């Protein structure tokens, strides 16, 4: 009887899924947001962009009905809402459908990120520039040349056109006077406007903690699950490829015969080496393996896996990731990588940003490619997970302390929820010392995260300094990627479901199965009042 009463109570609560943009959240049947007159849509006579909210979780048959009425469906907006291009004459017909809850205009106000003009930049030139450096996302069927012409008419200086037609991505990056922002929003083919971020790195014992959480028990390695046959990708500041953790003693070039590195990509103005050390460190955590066997205690999580390096640093840790990110994911996948680890992002609230959308777009369309992102180092406050880690399909990684403090979240580790209420991060892994005392990365303490060291600004054949102890969610994320490589080998070698390798049971797991396995193999770190975003 108690169960039935509970169900009745739930059924009487009513609709509790408002339309949720980053800056506007409203139930349209109760009230619409107050929008400045200058940012309201000026309707065309024949057709316009609308928001259509459905009555519940969206079914394909409902979407097909919209298409039958000539609607073109674009992006999803929480909850149960899509942006749709529609002839005005069809609106009344669609409003009468039982599964359509509400139809309203997609106003220019909804297109403008609330973080424009509020971003903080370390680069003095960028911080003091009176103009805005904007990135606009277009509807996938937009005429790019026409939009460029419209932007130029407003005085914009076009910097870059970033398109990936396979994933329906069309973007333009440009500089413009802040006074023209509202006029940009009135360009109908533009669906979203944001300020270009300044990307930053998230650097601020793991092996056995992840495998068994029993001191020095690396049972997966003992059973031969070490990442063999797996290729992962690291998008970071480059790599000291002559370090003993990555060096090919036979001198083979990057490629299928190289001991560690399948491919090496440079993006933007990236240099062909790691002058910062961050990329070498995270690569070592993921899959580093000292071929001299002198420093095996510093080997990475998937020590027998190989890797693709995607260098996005143009010096000093300054980053220029590919735009859109889908192009970088595609490069990694083309080289045989099943996953990409990313220990960088930007501080722009916990919004679902353009890069977050790129991740979900790619993972949805490529079921065997997994993306991991560091949550960020803006804790301990809630809602501090930063883009791109606010994606829905990726694995967002927080930092915990080392043993014996592995059940404690690091103070600096970013917390959830995301702006739209989703729980974050996905998992947490050791990213600082046991006492949550993160040392200065250039004056490291004795108990942070040890991994491969970049010895100098150019590749160096040395193992003289093999352990550079940094801390941060940067250090936790590649460990999670290495763990995913072990899980993937486990399935591909046929260990499931019998617990022994059976060729007849072997299969290649999808990205969502890898994610689910990592989540379900994790240990609850919290208290009874979960979720508490602590």
Automatic annotation (TrEMBL):
PROSITE patterns per the UniProt record, alphabetical: SUBTILASE, SUBTILASE_HIS, SUBTILASE_SER
Keywords, comma-separated and alphabetical: Hydrolase, Protease, Serine protease
Active site: 236, 278, 474
Composition-biased stretches (Polar residues): 427-440
GO molecular function, one term: serine-type endopeptidase activity
UniProt GO BP: proteolysis
Coiled coil (UniProt feature): none
Ranges where the record places region Disordered: 406-441
CDD domains assigned: Peptidases_S8_Kp43_protease (cd04842)
InterPro entries with a match to the protein in the record: Peptidase_S8/S53_dom, Peptidase_S8/S53_dom_sf, Peptidase_S8/S53_subtilisin, Peptidase_S8_His-AS, Peptidase_S8_Ser-AS, Peptidase_S8_subtilisin-rel, TagA/B/C/D_pept_dom
Organism superkingdom: Bacteria
All copies of domain Peptidase S8/S53, residue ranges: 227-528
Family the UniProt entry places it in: Belongs to the peptidase S8 family.
PANTHER family xref list: PEPTIDASE S8 FAMILY WITH PROTEASE-ASSOCIATED DOMAIN, SUBTILISIN-RELATED
Protein name in UniProt: Peptidase S8/S53 domain-containing protein
Native species: candidate division WOR-3 bacterium
């Amino acid at each position: 009887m108690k169960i039935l009463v509970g169900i009745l109570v739930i059924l009487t609560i009513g609709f509790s899924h408002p339309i949720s943009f980053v800056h506007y959240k409203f139930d349209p049947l109760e009230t619409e947001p107050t929008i400045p007159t200058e940012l309201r849509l000026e309707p065309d006579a024949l057709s316009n962009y609308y928001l259509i909210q459905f009555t519940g979780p969206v079914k394909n048959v409902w979407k097909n009905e919209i298409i039958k009425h000539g609607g073109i469906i674009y992006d999803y907006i929480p909850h149960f809402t899509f942006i749709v291009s529609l002839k005005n004459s069809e609106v009344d017909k669609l409003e009468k459908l039982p599964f359509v809850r509400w139809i309203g205009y997609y106003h220019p106000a909804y297109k403008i990120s609330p973080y424009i003009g509020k971003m903080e930049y370390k680069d003095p030139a960028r911080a003091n520039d009176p103009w805005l450096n904007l990135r606009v996302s277009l509807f996938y069927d937009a005429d790019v040349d026409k939009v460029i012409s419209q932007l130029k008419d407003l005085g914009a200086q076009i910097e870059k056109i970033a398109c990936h037609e396979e994933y329906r991505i069309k973007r333009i990056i440009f500089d413009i006077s802040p006074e023209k922002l509202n006029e940009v929003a009135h360009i109908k083919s533009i669906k979203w406007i944001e300020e270009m971020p300044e990307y930053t790195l998230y650097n601020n014992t793991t092996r056995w903690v992840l495998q068994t959480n029993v001191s020095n028990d690396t049972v997966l390695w003992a059973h031969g699950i070490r990442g063999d046959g797996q290729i992962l990708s690291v998008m970071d500041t480059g790599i000291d490829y002559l370090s003993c953790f990555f060096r090919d003693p036979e001198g083979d070039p990057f490629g299928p015969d190289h001991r560690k590195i399948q491919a090496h990509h440079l993006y933007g103005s990236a240099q062909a080496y790691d002058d910062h050390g961050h990329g070498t460190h995270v690569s070592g955590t993921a899959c580093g393996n000292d071929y001299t066997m002198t420093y095996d205690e510093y080997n990475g999580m998937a020590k027998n896996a190989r890797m693709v390096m995607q260098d996005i640093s143009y010096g000093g840790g300054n980053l220029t990731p590919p735009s859109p990110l889908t192009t970088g994911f595609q490069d990694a996948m083309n080289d045989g990588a099943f996953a990409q680890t990313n220990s960088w992002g930007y501080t722009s609230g916990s919004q679902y940003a353009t890069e977050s959308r790129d991740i979900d777009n790619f993972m949805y369309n490529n079921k065997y490619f997994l993306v991991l992102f560091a949550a960020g180092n803006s804790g301990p406050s809630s809602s501090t997970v930063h883009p791109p880690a606010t994606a829905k399909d990726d694995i967002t990684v927080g930092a915990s302390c080392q043993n014996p403090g592995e059940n404690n979240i690091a103070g600096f580790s970013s917390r959830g929820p995301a702006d739209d209420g989703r729980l974050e991060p996905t998992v947490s892994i050791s990213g600082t010392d046991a006492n949550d005392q993160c040392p200065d990365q250039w004056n490291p303490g004795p108990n942070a995260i040890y991994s491969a060291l970049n010895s100098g600004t150019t590749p160096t054949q040395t193992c003289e300094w093999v352990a550079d102890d940094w801390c941060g969610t940067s250090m936790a994320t590649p460990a999670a990627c290495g763990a995913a490589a072990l899980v993937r080998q486990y399935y591909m070698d046929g260990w499931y479901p019998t617990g022994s390798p059976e060729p007849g049971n072997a299969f290649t797991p999808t990205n969502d199965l890898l994610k689910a396995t990592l989540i379900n193999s994790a240990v609850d770190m919290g208290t009874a009042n979960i979720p508490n975003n602590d």
